[in-house]
């Protein structure tokens, strides 16, 4: 039989290079697009029979499955949850892989990547790229991380997708000169670490916002935010506690461990019932009342913002008579509180339009000497939340009613001091909202990661040296040795 003629280096090069029309994107002139199969061996894995204890018991060979990389964040990995024995290795299709092998999960799911920090083996859920002088392991690692969508697109299978060994050999690879690969890997790692640090700081800031929010609300309703204001304005609003015959009963309604001795003397002890002129449950409408052709919008919990405003978001509309509208509609200054579902979510209506509260809301209207946002902030404060049954230590109620809310005790300052407290809190939370909106842009962080990797493999990180020998020379050298 005649032997297969060995291809010349030029013929191998022609097979290894990817044609211009098949290239995914442009790369620098001293880079080349090639196929992974031209650069290295692609090795699969295997699983020794699980019922044979001799294949696993007291094994010393690290053995990985894709599950070992689930949530794994490090670049290098030493071992998985299980080891296998030499016998288990020899009696299965698992292979001993050298250190610096790039491990790629090829099914369930496709796209987990790690680099072997020592000799190890894998199950059949991996396709592994043996070390080669053609690529720096960390450069290939980041490229595979970047290429998850591309890898999934070339996979096959009806029940579940799998990336075959033959497909892995066909993976398109943008190959820079070796020193450039190292520079790219180092810069990508350094910049991604900074992005991750920024993300951690953002998460910490979000958590601290909640703590600061609770702290400032607690100070507000103990008179601490306006202590200087009271002195500067020579404020001597004296509460006539004798107007109320149930002082002791009101004090008993406070949480048992709550210190009620540190409220300003000028603040009046009462309850929400005494300062509320009326309450009203949102009406229920029949199917025929709803309209797609005009009508009055209904305010829902989902229309309420965190800072106590209302922003209608494609609300249902109803058509009602003028008489019913007058009875149902909200007025400026009405406090709307969710009574079931998202219990305690609330907002103060301040719109210049007619609207009706939905059936799951309670509408509270207050007397003239009460600023509705003062009540809103009080109910959002730690003590208010606790009395609503929503505090950190409380067991959340399935629903809440107007009677319960009206029974909540409250220390009330003069209207002018209420307005000052609201002014301070509005200002503080407005600034917090602006910062929080910036911090909420998690997608921006993800876009930064994607953009960084996108630039890395296009030679746009500012690390490429066009005077370095072209990567095609390195490719030729590798092909000659294969």
UniProtKB/TrEMBL annotation:
- The membrane spanning regions, by residue number, are none
Q: What Gene Ontology molecular-function terms does this entry list?
A: DNA binding; type I site-specific deoxyribonuclease activity
Annotated Type I restriction modification DNA specificity domain ranges read 28-206, 264-440
Highest rank taxon of the organism: Bacteria
Q: Name one Pfam family in it.
A: Methylase_S
Name the top EC class: hydrolase
Keywords on this record?
Answer: Coiled coil, DNA-binding, Hydrolase, Restriction system
E.C. number: 3.1.21.3
What stretch or stretches form a coiled coil here? 178-208
Against SUPFAM superfamilies, the record matches this protein to:
DNA methylase specificity domain
Family listed: Belongs to the type-I restriction system S methylase family.
What is the name of the protein in this document?
A: Type I restriction enzyme S subunit
- Give the species: Texcoconibacillus texcoconensis
